[in-house]
Design a protein that fits this description.
The structure holds 2 protein chains of 2 kinds. By secondary structure, chain A is an alpha/beta fold. Chain A contains 12 helices and 14 strands. Chain A has 2 domains: 2-182, 3-Layer(aba) Sandwich (Rossmann fold), CATH 3.40.50; 195-320, Rossmann fold (3-Layer(aba) Sandwich), CATH 3.40.50.920. Chain A is 37% helix and 20% strand. In chain A, helix 8 (211-222) packs across helix 12. Chain A is globular, with a radius of gyration of 19 Å. By secondary structure, chain B is an alpha/beta fold. Chain B contains 12 helices and 8 strands. In chain B, helix 9 (227-242) links the parallel strand 7 (218-223) and strand 8 (248-253). In chain B, helix 3 runs parallel beside helix 4, helix 3 packs parallel to helix 9 and helix 5 crosses helix 12 (298-321). Classes of the chains: A alpha/beta, B alpha/beta. The interface between A and B is large, with 45 and 52 residues.
Chain lengths: 322, 347
């Protein structure tokens, strides 16, 4: 065990997969010589050579599409989008080809797409988004959103090992800010299993990614209300059983996410709880999410956009009063 | 590096030099007949109401498809499209499975989950197309990338139409393949009509293959109704790629002899254009060549035709016996399991 940043944990996990499996390669913009825009693959090209750490032209469709072809030919490609926002350029390929190939043609597409996502540093509308809900809606894709360094390392291994296209949303705001104990050896964190970040009795707070820390701080500030924080870890598939179990225990649920509200994944969670645990609820399932607008640039606006600790405190208090 | 316009193929000795013996030539003829036979019978099935949805053929493109597929090696892979039935046939798909696919039956390669020519047998080195064109080009480039990483002497062939040459996927694929010198051959089925849109509204150069120079590789235009010329040019391009020479853009010029799909009577195609290209029917053209150059006799022809007819009849019967898919299979296989990766190519 050693203390690692979230970023280092992803990097370590990826390096371990490349060391143990020659089929794994990395392709993306500036991933080789430069080591990636955020330096996740720093030193990889020296270690694995230019044909396993491939600097690609600025062509997201070709990058992700080539991963599909290579994976069908037996490789285990890992594409890096420089920012999660740019996955829109490869949306067509992911949704049209990669997601449907197993179902309709019997051809699995074992690829991983790494997506540095999230806001909090004035990245503006095109460098701050959390597009996981859009992809969670597409049958055939998996969406992984780790919050801790330990999960980030275990889930990158799981993503690469998985026989499906897996979108790995790594939150940029956690990269260097969040540190934690991470096992040195290789391990796999299962996709589809939530983690109880903190146990509690009065209110369940379901969230993922960077919002886990916002939730934690809000729970701390509340004091007298005991909050159970469920970190989903993976949004598709999502751990319905763990959420329902916690909902039945506390009878009050708040769903928190950094993505926009309408049609966000929180709606799916709220609807499922309403359908399957209605009798056991003591209040409405509450959502806290970004407003339905693009991510703004100016710090004042961005603070108003991304759910803040005080918003969550307020939401939890309201729920607790039921 | 201007585009090269390929010469037609002349004599038998020239063909022998290109690696085809008489039996190969007769097999090419058989494959052309099977390709057309499958699509003609598909038309009949459609009119009988046995094919749901729509129905697409590659009439006029049989020579281009069979020619390229004949030039591929056994371990090469490809992403053929809806005008390329000849590729599936040449690689060895059994026609009854194509009919089953047309009719949405359980024994079609997609088991009724997808229709018409959205199919491929991955064990034959083919990857199933999607409707979005040319979405399979980056996939073909990725196959080539895998071969290059592993230093295998294999080649990927990616098909696209001149219509889809307008889309960004084409540009991105050729840019990646060109910069990395990947072993891929881009085959443009230029049938001169993207649904109802003529070529001058699809691209502003003389040939689609003119673009190859911009991506740093060779462009070749070949008469797509001349199966042997297509074979020769595809063989050159494929072997060049195999030996590390990088991509080629091979443009096969034909005319789409029917509408975009069965509902379309192609009224927008000038009649003289159809009449002119009908004279260059790839099957008739090759038949004439075989009789003139390869001593194909009446007996040879009768035997081949009888064999194809029997194959079609047997295949139709077998396909009609195939059941409709069980509704319980609807949501099966949305996600792959680790066992699904136990294929010859995924390992």
């Amino acid at each position: 065990m050693a203390e690692k940043t979230y970023l280092q944990a992803i990097s370590d996990g990826l390096r371990l997969e490349m060391q143990r499996d020659k089929r794994v390669f990395v392709i993306g913009e500036d991933v080789g010589v430069y080591g990636g825009a955020f330096k996740v693959t720093l030193g990889f090209q020296e270690e694995f050579g230019p044909w396993r750490v491939i600097d690609a032209p600025l062509a997201e469709t070709a990058i992700v599409g080539a991963c599909t072809g290579a994976s069908i030919m037996g490789m285990r490609p890992v594409a890096e989008m420089q920012f999660a926002d740019f996955i829109s350029c490869a949306w067509d390929h992911l949704v049209t080809v990669a997601a449907k190939q197993r179902w309709r043609a019997g051809t699995p597409v074992p690829i991983t797409v790494r997506l540095p996502s999230g806001g909090g540093f004035s990245g503006g509308p095109f460098h701050s988004q959390n597009p996981e809900s859009s992809f969670a809606h597409i049958p055939g894709l998996k969406c992984v959103c780790p919050a801790t360094p330990e999960d980030a390392k275990g889930l990158i291994a799981a993503a690469i090992e998985d026989p499906n296209p897996v979108l790995f949303f790594e939150h940029k705001h956690l990269y260097r800010r969040i540190k934690g104990e991470v096992p040195d050896e290789r391990y796999v964190t299962p996709i589809g299993k939530a983690r109880i970040h903190q146990e509690g009795e009065d209110v369940t707070l379901v969230t993922w990614g960077a919002m886990v820390y916002t939730a934690e701080e809000a729970a701390k500030q509340l004091g007298d209300v005991s909050v159970e924080i469920v970190d989903l870890r993976t949004v598709m598939p999502w751990d319905k059983a763990a959420v329902l179990e916690s909902a039945r225990k506390t009878s009050k649920v708040l769903v928190l996410h950094e993505d926009t509200r309408t049609g966000g994944f929180g709606a799916e969670i709220a609807a499922t709880i309403a359908e399957e645990a209605f009798e056991e609820l003591d209040g409405p399932v509450k959502r806290i999410a970004a407003p339905d607008c693009p991510v703004p640039f100016s710090p004042t606006l961005e603070k108003a956009y991304i759910p803040q600790v005080e918003d969550v405190v307020k939401g939890l208090k309201e729920l607790a009063e039921y | 590096m201007a585009v090269r316009e390929a010469e037609p193929v002349g004599s038998l000795s020239e063909v022998k030099e290109a690696g085809l013996d008489r039996e190969d030539l007769l097999q090419i003829y058989r494959n052309l007949l099977i390709t057309r036979g499958v699509e003609e019978r598909g038309h009949i099935l459609y009119r009988q109401g046995k094919i749901p949805g729509s129905f697409y053929t590659g009439r006029g493109n049989e020579g281009a498809a069979v020619g390229v597929a004949t030039a591929m090696g056994p371990d090469d892979v490809g992403t053929p499209l809806h005008r390329d039935m000849g590729v599936h046939i040449t690689r060895g798909v059994e026609p009854w499975r194509v009919f089953a696919q047309y009719m949405g039956r359980a024994d079609g390669p997609t088991k009724g989950k997808d229709g018409n020519v959205h199919m491929a047998d991955s064990n034959l080195g083919l990857i199933a197309m999607v409707s979005h064109l040319p979405a399979m080009l980056p996939v073909a480039v990725g196959c080539a990338l895998a071969f290059r990483i592993r230093e295998e002497k294999r080649v990927a062939v990616g098909w696209f139409g001149e219509g889809a040459s307008a889309r960004g996927d084409t540009h991105e694929s050729m840019t990646l393949a060109g910069t990395r010198g990947l072993p891929v051959v881009f085959v443009c089925d230029n049938n001169q009509w993207a649904y109802s849109t003529p070529t001058h509204l699809e691209y502003a150069t003389e040939h689609v293959a003119d673009r190859a120079a911009a991506y740093g590789f060779d462009g070749v235009v070949v008469d797509g109704t001349d199966v042997l010329a297509v074979y020769r040019e595809a063989k050159r391009a494929i072997e060049k790629a195999r030996s590390g020479g990088g991509p080629t853009l091979l443009e096969c010029l034909t005319l789409r002899m029917e509408g975009h799909a069965v509902h379309d009577d192609a009224f927008y195609v000038p009649k003289p254009m159809f009449e002119e290209w009908a004279k260059a029917d790839p099957l008739e053209r090759f038949r004439g060549w075989l009789r003139e150059n390869a001593n194909m006799t009446d007996e040879d022809e009768e035997e081949i035709l009888a064999g194809v007819k029997k194959l079609m009849n047997d295949s139709l019967k077998r396909a009609e016996e195939s059941p409709l898919p069980d509704v319980s299979t609807l949501t099966e296989g949305v996600y792959a399991t680790p066992e699904d990766l136990d294929t010859p190519h995924h390992k």
